[in-house]
């Protein structure tokens, strides 16, 4: 961490010198492994793996001591309740209440708690004030719907003794087969097992027990010892910090198997391949489990299961023609082991078809066992039901999906004005400029440095002239300094996180000594909301938005660079229980604050977060943190962004150019060409790097970067439509191969090319130095056309070599799609609002195509009252038509009026048939018109391998109206 904290200027110089010198000697920078725990250094991880190994070595899951008491089972209104007992020995049993909820969506929730802790019937050590229950509020932060219980779920009467079967799901095609002893659940779809819980017998809930401080009279050492590894039950030390663990051991673990599935995806955030690797060794596999413990990992490494800044414990398993998923709703430190092997012959596992089993083992340090099982069968259906539970991606403002220019730091308001001016001078589009921590008055958030930013308002007014925005950073650590009103208020109102003794917690971050706002506290949210009001956060205007960084939280002198686990949050929950939610509570509060900056000014907030959890997609965008200006980091960003999309948080991107280090001009250029395919597109750079705004790159680089950015702007209508789709059904914005071609096994693990929404645009970013061509994999037998010159690529199940000299972005269009664009260059997306559209109709083999377009004001929530245009374009029977996709609401008519003059200025039909050769016009029919009018058509024949195309200029049709253009 220390290397990127600015100290004094002299120190900066010294450090910069040191960095330069070390760069000359050391080939690359490396994560400090010693700062983060490996599994064997994390008590419960070590215990959980040992438990799994001991069960496995006994050869059968039958040894599992967990039994569902048949006589306790009740099934009422789509919910089964009962008690699982864990047998400790002949005399002792632990009671674990079980609730299995069958939801209307076809998802099942399995929840297990511990009776003694529910009743608070336990003793805490060290006079701790912590809550006694297992943490039971994750769902309060994460779940926003989808919990209606199924009315059709029913117990099947014909089950054998010791087994309960419940049919549910669409047409009763799903079944949960619950074996009572040992407790085990198999989830079946159409008679086939897809997901198994505790099939391997790794279910383990560490029950509460009192610490035996000393030997009872007459007991010797060996009698006190159990055969469990108690080493880390009561205390755990790492990196000079001792965790007091007042509640003792309380971890929860379970194996979740996917019989017949060879790929699992998701559980971000890891810098690794999209298809997750095995974690118990083997050629090219990991030896550590994937870890989920939100952390500020300085100079993170690639191809690693190490934890990073955010975590979403949601996984999709995929095999030919079937996708299933699980959500492990637990906010404590979590690890996931993955092993793949040949199918076994469990008698309960019906009709398993695939060749490989993927077996996963999940364990968390505390909390309830709370698992959701999704039976698919498609990735789309899983994204949708996951989104119904955790919320869909926020529909962002238009500007938020355009280009963001950031660095640490733009140093004065003059500097900002100058950068803004230069972008215009060089005719490079951008929408947002960002201020990192140095804009503040000595790291006191909600202030501007009066010397360097004397006129923040003037600066924002200049940006506003081109409809541009400002984003300022606000971190959760509040400087501990006398006479700083924000910290005084936070202390007075007791809104900060507390240490284990219940006193205000103090640690180190950018400002030095700091306290942390506790956004688990509703009063803290109210207070935080007020801080953003214009009269409080002086100097900000309506075109300013917020970046929440360091919200893991990052604590420079804390264990693993974060807070001690025995710190206390609102409600006396230990930090251990809520750690992975922490970042999300901050952005919840900031989102809320941006909604309430001024009465009557209701615009969609924009918040960027570094730390996140399931549900954070409702509030804003994420980025992959502090990457490096290297080719392999560029390459790694794609699996990371794709996996985030699979896990329901698709508004994702990586620092374009790389955060640490200075990219070569070629790397910078390629990064822009690749970055225009991140849903969140922002360039950013470390304070010690050289300036690298695109106009500084010199030719030919500047021109090429400009073209890449203009491509993003040209396609903004398609991107916005993809964001809209994500906001209503959870679809990823950029989609991996398996998502689009779920039966093409060769493509399942491909994570270096992507489709943009449902547009059929297939991009393969160049991520290697000196490339002049690239191989793109095509799964299907459709024609694919080069986006720029219509070169045809055809042939299913193989790769095709596409020219990719530096100035070329490898981008294909799959036949069968209609892509909406705006072709006029403007300085920012806001200035494109009233521009006419171009439609690219890419015909498929049958001579057909379809596509959609979603448009709204890009700013307010009026779309929720119907202020939008949603069109379906169809090309069939030689005619292109535009139909309404069901726009209606109180504000529809008013909105359509504002859009009344926005038209389609050009239609390009790619793959235009030979019969059009002599055609010079098409017939345009507007809805309701008696007769059509003619528009000119130019036909261009096939040239070599370049497809034919036809252009209709100025067809005089409106974007908000139904119409038809006859090409016959
Ligand atoms: C860490 C963030 O990851 C980085 O993007 C930012 O520039 C620094 N903090 C300084 O705020």
From TrEMBL:
Note one Pfam family from the annotation.
DUF5110
The record places domain DUF5110 at 838-877
Give the catalytic activity.
Answer: Hydrolysis of terminal, non-reducing (1->4)-linked alpha-D-glucose residues with release of alpha-D-glucose
Spans annotated as Disordered:
211-250
Gene Ontology CC terms, in alphabetical order: glucosidase II complex
Name the pathway. Glycan metabolism; N-glycan metabolism
| Superkingdom of origin | Eukaryota
Q: Could you tell me which residue ranges the Glycoside hydrolase family 31 TIM barrel domain spans?
A: 394-722
The subcellular location is: Endoplasmic reticulum
Carries keyword Glycoprotein?
yes
Keywords annotated in UniProt = Endoplasmic reticulum, Glycoprotein, Glycosidase, Hydrolase, Membrane, Signal, Transmembrane, Transmembrane helix
Domain Glycoside hydrolase family 31 N-terminal span(s) in chain numbering: 97-337
Q: GO molecular function, one example?
A: carbohydrate binding
InterPro entries for the chain: DUF5110, Gal_mutarotase_sf_dom, GH, Glyco_hydro_31_AS, Glyco_hydro_31_C, Glyco_hydro_31_N_dom, Glyco_hydro_31_TIM, Glyco_hydro_b
Which Gene3D superfamilies does the protein's record reference? Glycosidases, glycosyl hydrolase (family 31), Golgi alpha-mannosidase II
UniProt record, GO biological process: carbohydrate metabolic process; N-glycan processing
- What are the TM regions of this chain, as residue ranges? 12-31
> Which protein family is it in?
Belongs to the glycosyl hydrolase 31 family.
Q: What is this protein called?
A: alpha-glucosidase
Give the organism, scientific name: Polytolypa hystricis (strain UAMH7299)
